[in-house]
């Protein structure tokens, strides 16, 4: 139940129900989820340990702040992890069919896009990249990536609320094609191109725009 509550909080952030810096009130979340406050309290502590929630004296629990500089730093770490995953995945023995799970994850992303729910799109995108890390056969690498996954979900959620989802889908296919061909250079180039969208995305401006009161109020 704690994990489910944590996932629900992250999904709400991906849908824009919580914005970066918003206070997360334990009692309100428990009421909305129809559960007791105990698992919500534990979920908030779990999310705090993962950097998604920040506890400030006299201000309570708040969703992580999102800044352009912070996103850039996080994406550099993510690129390093996934680049290593590609190198190690290509060193694993076996035919191209070993990438079938990655293809299935890409299909899952395409299906999520048709539902037009930012939280489901973010979840499916995360599953694709988790599978890429899983293919490396490197358990510590996967664990490190999963430690960043929920922070990435909050960031991706902000982007998905304002940007189309077609570009990531195309990027997934380019990465898969390069892996299936055994071309490390192309796979790394496809990964970097797939991730560089954040360079032109102003997260701070999106948050500021979302915080504006509705017109006429």
From TrEMBL:
The keyword Transcription regulation applies. Residues 1-66 form the HTH gntR-type domain. InterPro entries: AsnC-type_HTH_dom, GntR_C, TF_FadR/GntR_C, Tscrpt_reg_HTH_GntR, WH-like_DNA-bd_sf, WH_DNA-bd_sf. One of its GO terms (molecular function) is DNA-binding transcription factor activity. It comes from the Bacteria. CDD domains: WHTH_GntR. Keywords: DNA-binding, Transcription, Transcription regulation. The keyword Transcription applies. This is Transcriptional regulator, GntR family.
């Amino acid at each position: 139940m704690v994990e489910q509550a944590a996932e629900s909080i992250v999904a709400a952030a991906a849908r824009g129900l919580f914005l970066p810096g918003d206070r997360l009130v334990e009692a309100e979340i428990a009421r909305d989820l129809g559960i007791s406050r105990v698992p919500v309290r534990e979920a908030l502590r779990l999310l705090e340990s993962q950097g998604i929630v920040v506890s400030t004296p006299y201000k309570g629990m708040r969703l992580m702040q999102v800044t352009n500089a912070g996103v850039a730093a996080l994406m550099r770490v993510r690129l390093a992890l996934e680049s290593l995953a590609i190198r190690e995945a290509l060193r694993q023995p076996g035919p191209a069919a070993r990438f079938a799970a990655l293809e299935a994850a890409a299909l899952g992303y395409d299906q999520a896009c048709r539902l037009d729910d930012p939280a489901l799109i973010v979840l499916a995108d995360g599953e694709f990249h988790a599978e890429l890390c899983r293919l490396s056969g490197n358990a510590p690498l996967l664990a490190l990536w999963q430690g960043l996954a929920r922070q990435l979900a909050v960031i991706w959620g902000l982007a998905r609320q304002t940007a189309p989802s077609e570009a990531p889908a195309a990027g997934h296919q380019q990465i898969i094609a390069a892996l299936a061909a055994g071309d490390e250079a192309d796979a790394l180039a496809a990964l970097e191109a797939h991730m560089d969208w954040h360079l032109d995305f102003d997260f701070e401006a999106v948050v500021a725009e979302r915080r504006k009161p509705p017109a006429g109020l």
